[in-house]
Amino acid sequence: MTVNTLSKVAKPTLARRLVILALLAAFGAMAVGFVKEMVAPVTTFYGVDFPAGEVSFADTIVSYEPVIYLNDDRLPNVQEPFNNAVSALGAPNSTDPRHPLASLSARHDVSLGLGGSLTLRFTNNALTGSGNSALDLWIFEAGERTESVFVEISKDGKTWHAVGRTDKKRSGIDIDAFGWGPEDYFAYVRLTDDPEEGEHDGIWNNGEWVGWGGADIDAVGAISSVSLISSVSHASSFSIPLSRLMLFVMAILVAGIGIGYLVNTFLFDKKSSKQNF
Ligand SMILES: [Ca+2]
Ligand SMILES: [Ca+2]
Ligand SMILES: [Ca+2]
Q1: How far is the CA of 8 from the centre of ligand 1 (A)?
Q2: pLDDT for the residue 50
Q3: Among the ranges 17-26, 91-100, 109-118, 238-247, which has the highest mean pLDDT value?
Q4: From the CA of 125, which ligand is nearest?
Q5: What parts of the sequence cross the membrane (predicted)?
Q6: Count of CB atoms situated within 10 Å of the CB of 75
């Protein structure tokens, strides 16, 4: 092989290296794009904005004490699927005012019956005050109209503080109005159906008995929320599981480096070694 031929070979090799670099850069850009998408959490649920995203909602059930009675036909005012307290956990996913009579399989809310109560706990976040009159807590009541509940909050699950009552005009609570603020952190919310207000019987709908008496709770969310996942509070974009995010970034990096290495080995090294010997 002459010197002339060698110099001809060197040029396309450099070009290939540039192509490989470009490929790696493209992978990097894709990774950044994916990561940005993952970091930006969904923050608006049924028209209500929760700056911290999905972490804002109640995580576990402490107690569910519905008050159930039978009507003259011995049909209960609360029954399947409205007697499952798990339906009140996480982000709202039941009916909204636009679709009040969705099929039972589309309903994911729990009924309290006549004056019954539901106590929920935040475990990966805490409810706090906003420091102003902005609403801090939102009760998602499902069904054809909002039925009232009395709302109490607690830091330790033992000492309770009343923070008002929701109604058809107001599903949000401003806890600052009751003397609390950004330095207070609450892990518990207790909701008690107002026995004086709302529909406490079940109904017949499409030939089916629907036991959804009393307030029907779809979700309970802290608008003013402190994340306990990381040390960053209020509207933290890091409230998504960090380990999952890091694994994803690592996977993209490893894939990019691996592809770059393979391309380099099989396209560049093979040819250059052939031509060098
Ligand atoms: Ca939560
Ligand atoms: Ca407030
Ligand atoms: Ca629900």
Answers
A1: 64
A2: 97
A3: 109-118
A4: 1
A5: 245-268
A6: 14
In this structure, the dihedral spanned by the alpha carbons of residues 70, 193, 124 and 46, taken in order and rounded to 10 degrees, is 100
CA gap 143, 171 in Å, rounded: 13
Residue 239 confidence (pLDDT): 41
Contacts 24+ apart (CB under 8 A), 252-256: 252/27, 252/30, 252/31, 252/34, 253/31, 255/27, 256/23, 256/24, 256/27, 256/28, 256/31
Is residue 16 within 8 A of residue 267, CB to CB? The reply is yes
pLDDT at 236 over 50: no
Whether residue 74 contacts residue 204, with contact meaning beta carbons closer than 8 Å, is answered with no
- The answer to whether the beta carbons of residues 187 and 128 sit under 8 Å apart is no
Ligand 2 centre to CA of 179 (Å) is 10
Question: What pLDDT was estimated at residue 2?
Answer: 45
* Model pTM score: 0.70
